[in-house]
């Protein structure tokens, strides 16, 4: 999914290469168009909580879901952003302006 040198910088910028993946059926079994593209897996370290909200490009995509430290986000383009909020407190905000989205 990603190159070994991919990392999150202190400002939330993701650097490295996200490879184009086709037919990732486990991502969204209900929507086949979301089963291909660039995916970014990561884990929230040293954090726990009860409820979380995920925002994509400033819009709630999942609200008040049970806490889970492991994520896979589908990155549509370099302008895509994600924010993870745990127990109503910002945990991390990611942007992909510095990432390479390979073909």
Task: Give the tags.
four-stranded antiparallel beta sheet, 0% helix, three-stranded mixed beta sheet, 103 residues, 50% strand, mainly beta
Structural class comes to mainly beta
**Are there runs of 5+ residues with pLDDT below 50, and where?**
none
- Give the SSE string: EEEEEEEEEE
Distance between the termini: 12 Å
The total of beta strands comes to 10
Described by its quaternary structure, the protein is single chain
- List the strand order in the largest sheet: 6-5-8-9
Could you explain how this protein is built, in words?
The chain has 103 residues and is mainly β. 0% of the residues lie in helices and 50% in strands. It is built from no helices and ten strands. The protein has strands at residues 7-8, 14-18, 20-21, 37-43, 51-56, 59-66, 70-75, 81-86, 89-95, 99-101. Strands 6-5-8-9 form a four-stranded antiparallel beta sheet, with no helix packed on it. It is globular. The mean pLDDT is 96.
Helix-strand layout with pairing:
Blueprint: E1 7-8, E2 14-18, E3 20-21, E4 37-43, E5 51-56, E6 59-66, E7 70-75, E8 81-86, E9 89-95, E10 99-101
Q: How do you describe this structure in short?
A:
By secondary structure, the chain is mainly β. It is built from no helices and ten strands. It has strands at 7-8, 14-18, 20-21, 37-43, 51-56, 59-66, 70-75, 81-86, 89-95, 99-101.
């Amino acid at each position: 999914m990603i190159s070994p040198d991919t990392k999150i910088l202190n400002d939330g910028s993701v650097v490295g290469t996200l490879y184009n993946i086709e037919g990732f059926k486990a991502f969204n079994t209900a929507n086949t168009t979301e089963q291909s593209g660039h995916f970014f897996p990561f884990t929230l370290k040293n954090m726990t909580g009860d409820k979380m909200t995920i925002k994509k490009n400033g819009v709630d995509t999942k609200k008040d879901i049970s806490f889970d430290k492991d994520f896979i986000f589908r990155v549509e383009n370099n302008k895509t952003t994600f924010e993870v909020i745990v127990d109503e407190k910002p945990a991390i905000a990611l942007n992909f302006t510095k990432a390479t989205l390979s073909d």
